Each structure stands twice: as C-alpha cells, then as structure tokens.
Amino acid sequence: MKTVVERARHLLDGWRTAQEVISHKATDILAKPNSVIHGPVIKWTQPVYGKYKYNIDASFSDPLNMVDIGICIRDDQGDFVMAKTDCFSPLCDVDVGEAVGLHTALQWVTDLHYDNVDFVLDCKFVVEHFNSNLGDSSELGCIIQACRQLFDCNFQNSHVEFNRRQANGVAHELARVAPSHASSHVYDDVPSCIRDLIANEKQ
After folding, report:
1. Which of 6, 156, 176, 202 lies deepest, with the highest CB count within 10 Å?
2. Which pTM does this prediction carry?
C-alpha cells in the first residue's frame, strides 16, 4: 500500500505533467495565431425602422465618491439624436447605480414625449429584474418599481433590453466624461468624445 508521502508525490507529478501539457498548448497557440478560434464580434446595432435606441450606462468613481450616468439616443439609421450625462453621490452598489441610470433615461424620454424606444443597458441583472414581476422591497427593488411605473404609463411600443459592454461603448464614454459638468448636461450635437465611436458603429 502506498504511503501518504508516495500518494502526495504521485499527485504532484500528475499536476506537473498537466501543467506542462497546458504550457505546450499555449506555446503552440502563440506560435500559430491564425489557429486561434475567435468568438463573434459584438457591436452596436441600429433599432428597427421607426424606433429609437437609448443606450444607458453608469460608471463608479471611488475618488470622487460619485456615480456617473451616460445616455445616448440614436435613430433607426444609427444617427445621433441627443445625449445626456448626469451624476449623483454617494457611491452605491453597481446594480443600484445602473437602475438609477435607467430611471434617469425613462424620466428624460418621458419629458421628451418619445415613444417606440428600445432602452439598452449592459447590466443583465437590472434588465432581468425590470422585466420580471417579482416584488422586492430592497433599495434596488424600489428603484425598479419606479422605473416600471414610468415605463407603463408612458411607453406603449418600447422595451428594456440587455446588451454586452462591447455594444454599449458610447454610453460608457459619456458616463466617463460626466464629471466634467457640474450638473446634468444635454447634448443636442454629437459631443467630440463619442464622434468617432458613432461613426465607426454606423459602418
């Protein structure tokens, strides 16, 4: 019967062998970059004809103790319509900040009297929470409930959807520059910080 030490050595030898195999595979991949299988390219897509798309994102700044929000409206041709930045403090959980971003967008669009809108976030949890009918008395649940009330009262042919961060770059960039304004700011013309992004995403 093998001793405890022998079994330990056997396990260690097996681990080392496995690491060598992994290392060789990694070397082969680096030596042959064309053999790497790439995943699908994720990019922004325009809404269907007659609709608008609102991309929404929140960023979180520890040094400033602030949550920054970026919102961009584009039409069914991918053209810039309007954008908005906003911020609030103190810092909060990521899901709460993203939900506040959604509420900010819903309130803004309500004031603009737009309909036929796709609201898009890259926070899957908030989107799933919004689209469920589950009750929730937490801080996040209360914000989601306020979002649903705005949505149900003002939007007939609209949706709240999830998209990955790679397709939400414009809103993310707007959130990043939000602290450059002392309060909420609306852009009627495409700001320079997202001009190239929008041009590239239209191609």
Report:
1. 176
2. 0.78
